[in-house]
Amino acid sequence: MDAERVRRLLLDQKIATMPELKAALGTNVDLTVFRKLRELTYRSSCSHRGKYYTLEEIARFDAMGLWSFGSVWFSKHGTLVRTCEALVTQAEAGYATDELENVLHLGVKDALRKLAHEGRIFREKVSGRFVHLAADASARKEQRRARQVWDAHPPDLSFGAGVRVVPDELKAAIILFFTLLDESQRRLYAGLESMKLGHGGDRRIADLLGLDPGTVAKGRQQLLSKDVELERVRKKGAGRKPVEKKRRS
User: Fold this and answer.
1) pLDDT value, residue 153
2) Which residues are CB-contacts of 234 (< 8 A; sequence separation ≥ 6)?
3) How many angstroms separate the Cα of 39 from the Cα of each of 6, 9, 23, 30?
């Protein structure tokens, strides 16, 4: 029953701090709270020094294993240090510090320094810039090669961890397809493309399509929560008349 009380609080708030969870359970003991959280399968935030908690059933992790609620970030990989290790290891061309900070919206210098000191990742200069690469030698070789290719072309629009440069033809196709959609579909499509980009995608898609970032974020959240109306956005009779009707008139 106590665990259900915690679950109801988190379903309502999405995230909560230890003091809030203690108040919900009527206890002053951290261990009591953790016992109840373990019954529910929980996650602690990788930001804010892990002070926020949510449930596995609430978090909607993206392709990189990241999810945020407001300014609080959670990771499937666990702590910020483990998250940095996982993302650097999986990245096609590693990460420079500022690149990873743009992905996580968090300061990562201390975490990367710790990982490099422990040999869990490697920091080295590639094409005149320090980047963080995988600890595995063969993976690191591939990342180094990819980084050299990337650095030979100025980054434009980034689609996820592995793709930095989007050809002009693809951008033109995205914009063309976008213009064929109605208002609701445009919002959802923008949200879909934002999810492909990962964190920071709302702003980049908004800039590409001429939208407000809030509109993109709304479309993304609708898709994640499956809050999508299947009915037509326009009422029957609205919009352009069929060609046949125009000719008759």
Assistant:
1) 55
2) 182
3) 10, 15, 18, 15
The CATH number for 44's domain is 1.10.10
pLDDT(157) > 80: no
Q: What is the CATH number of the domain that holds 103?
A: 1.10.10.10
Report d(CA 2, CA 8) in Å as an integer: 10
pTM confidence score: 0.62
pLDDT at residue 240, as a whole number: 46
Q: Which two three-digit tokens encode residue 249?
A: 């008139």
pLDDT in tens, 218-239: 888 888 777 777 654 444 454 4
Q: Tens digits of per-residue pLDDT, 73-84?
A: 999 999 999 999
- Which H, E and C letters describe the chain, residue by residue? CHHHHHHHHHHHHCCEEHHHHHHHHCCCCHHHHHHHHHHHCEEECCCHHHCEEEECCCCCCCCCCEEEECCEEEECCCCHHHHHHHHHHHCCCCECHHHHHHHHCCCCHHHHHHHHHCCCEEEEEECCEEEEEECCHHHHHHHHHHHHHHHCCCCCCCECCCECCCCHHHHHHHHHHHHCCCHHHHHHHHHHHHHHHCCCHHHHHHHHHCCCHHHHHHHHHHHHHCCCCCCCCCCCCCCCCCHHHHHHC
Domain membership of residue 38 as a residue range: 2-75
Answer yes or no: do 85 and 128 share one domain.
yes
